[in-house]
Write a structure and sequence with these properties.
Length: 405
């Protein structure tokens, strides 16, 4: 959930809470005042009609005198007055209230405001008067005043909400300076990546040149030395000379192998034809020959033959460095190399069962840092660290989409 939505919900909840509390306070307040008003009005009416009932027989038949009196009295606030004769005939009923005539509050609201005052019956000779409390006008007044206050409160709260949200939006919107800084940083990052790409390309070019020079110059000179040594050994009968020439030939052959190995390292087959599976198989073969005591297992998954030169080379160089690190630092007996091409990414893991190193990237070497930069240039990520079961792990993820920006 976004920060803005969360703030919106919070403000709305606070506002609803405020409106709810306000409504409850108003209902409670109105209920009390209606109860008090109905009680007072009823008490006064009962007292007045009680005294009138006592004096009425003096002036003639009580029901007739009383009806005349009630007719002249008219409506008493908050009470319905009815006069019945002894045989139950309704002789008088007070007129309905003209105040807000024709309107009533909703039933549910009336139920909330119901007063507890009971009807009173006054007896007189030959008749009885019923005084029934009627809170409908007071309830309607309460309803009118509450809806007015509620609507006002609602308007106020809505305005407050909108004002608060506008303020928050302004507060959360990045300033122009922020936006400019962001653009500048992004550009800088892109430039840095481009520079790194150029440097990597330059280094590879230089490696190629060195490999060529070594192969062409040193390789040919060594071949020449071997040819000369062979011809000396053939043309001389002296055992010392033949033996010496044989030794020279042997050393030159060793030198030739070394030169070839260095050339292969500087310019692996991967550069000629970017097939990662073939290049890694080649690297693994060489590595096993040179390190027979360490068990190297390789798992290659997916199509690794068509990843493009840049990606292939990056993974190859990273694996090369990680395997060299195993020899230099791990003291391992087993190494596992796993490279897999997934749907949208390439994953490579090089792990060993050696002594490990928890703070490898903080070290003074350049290998891991270089790997990380190389991977970042292609928009990927590199993680290094201890394996839970002991040993060291380098894990690389590179996007396959090809966009490293
Ligand atoms: N497989 C490993 N096992 C144990 N420690 C390792 C392993 N790989 C790297 N390290 C640790 O990480 C450090 C950094 O490695 P990095 O390759 O960056 O530097 P280096 O190998 O020491 O030097 P350079 O690669 O520059 O010749 C190493 O010094 C070592 O302590
Ligand atoms: Mg290293």
């Amino acid at each position: 959930m976004s920060l803005r939505l969360r703030l919106n919900l919070l403000v709305a909840a606070l506002n609803l809470g405020f409106l709810g509390a306000l409504t409850w306070l108003l209902i409670d307040n109105h209920r009390n005042s209606i109860q008090e008003e109905i009680e007072a009005a009823h008490r006064v009416t009962v007292q007045m009609l009680g005294s009138a009932a006592q004096t009425s027989p003096v002036f003639g038949p009580a029901p007739v005198v009383m009806v005349n009196f009630l007719q002249s009295l008219g409506r008493v606030r908050a009470n319905d007055i009815r006069l019945y004769t002894a045989d139950g005939v309704l002789r008088y009923s007070s007129p309905p209230s003209a105040y807000k005539a024709g309107r009533t509050a909703p039933d549910w609201f009336g139920g909330l405001m119901r007063s507890t005052v009971e009807a009173t019956v006054i007896g007189l000779p030959g008749a009885r008067i019923e005084i029934v409390p009627d809170a409908s006008r007071a309830v309607l007044d309460a309803w009118d005043s509450m809806t007015a206050i509620f609507l006002l409160g609602l308007g106020f709260v809505a305005m407050l909400h909108v004002a608060l949200l506008l303020f928050l939006r302004r507060l959360l919107r990045p300033t122009e300076a922020d936006a400019r800084r962001l653009v500048a940083t992004t550009q800088e990052l892109a430039e840095n990546r481009e520079v790194m790409r150029l440097i990597e390309a330059g280094i590879e070019q230089e490696r190629k040149r060195l490999a060529r020079e070594l192969h062409d110059e040193l390789g040919q000179s060594v071949t020449a030395i071997r040819l000369i040594a062979t011809s000396i050994s053939r043309s001389s009968e002296a055992p010392g000379v033949t033996q010496g020439a044989g030794k020279v030939n042997e050393i030159a052959a060793g030198l030739y192998d070394s030169v070839h190995r260095i050339v292969r390292e500087l310019r692996p087959a991967v550069l000629e034809q970017p097939d990662l599976a073939a290049a890694l198989a080649d690297l693994g073969r060489e590595w096993r020959i040179r390190n027979p005591d360490i068990d190297l297992s390789m798992v290659l998954e997916g199509d690794l033959g068509d990843l493009g030169e840049e990606l292939t080379l990056a993974v190859f160089r990273c694996v090369q460095e990680a395997l060299t690190n195993v020899l230099k630092h791990a003291g391992a007996t087993r190494v596992r190399l796993a490279v897999a091409q997934r749907e949208d990414r390439l994953e490579a893991i090089i792990e060993d069962d050696g002594q490990g190193e928890p703070n490898a990237l903080a070290g003074s070497g350049h290998g891991l840092v270089g790997m990380r930069e190389r991977v970042a240039t292609l928009g990927g990520s590199l993680e290094t660290g201890m394996r839970p079961e002991g040993g060291f792990r380098v894990s690389i993820v590179l996007p396959l989409a090809g966009d490293s920006q």
